[in-house]
Each structure stands twice: as C-alpha cells, then as structure tokens.
Amino acid sequence: MAMVLGKTILLHDTTTQEFINNRKWIRHELAHIQQFKKHGYLLFLIKYVAESIRNGYYNNKYEIEARLAEEDESLDKFIPPFRV
Q: Which of 1, 35, 73, 83 sits at a 20 to 30 Å CA gap from 21?
C-alpha cells in the first residue's frame, strides 16, 4: 500500500524495492502528487475525503484518474531516480 501526502509517497507493508520495480504503481502515485499540486494540499485532502464519502474509495474520481495514469507511459519522464 502507498499513500501520498503532498510530494511524499508513504509506503506501508511493502518494500521500497517492490515499489520502485512497479512502474504502474509509481505512475498511480505520481498522479496523486499532481492532484495535490493542482488543488493545493489542504483543499485536495478535503475534496478527496468528500469524494470517498460520496462514492467510495474505488469510485472516487481521484482514484479513477490515478488508475488511468497507470497505463500512461508518458508519465515515466517524471519518475525520478530512486535512492534506496
């Protein structure tokens, strides 16, 4: 599991190496970073929680957007070099 807060990706119950080796997962989390940038830190958190309450996690429009980003190879240029 991973969670984004602002520009930070927090991992839970997985290794950094597992995350780094999964391009789709990285793209998903990069989409959330872009959402934070677009809406602002606090406003995005409020919108994300409200969307989850209204539509559930899976149907949350921000999660849908992030799942679509998983297939967008153009996002790979934004993947920074990782230090483990």
A: 35
- The model's pTM: 0.89
Q: Is residue 10 part of a domain?
A: yes
**Domains identified in the chain, total number:** 1
At residue 61's C-alpha, the angle toward residues 65 and 68, to 5°, is: 20
Q: What is the pLDDT of residues 10-38, one digit of tens each?
A: 999 999 999 989 999 999 999 999 999 99
Domain range enclosing 34? 2-78
Tally of CB atoms within 10 A around 35: 18
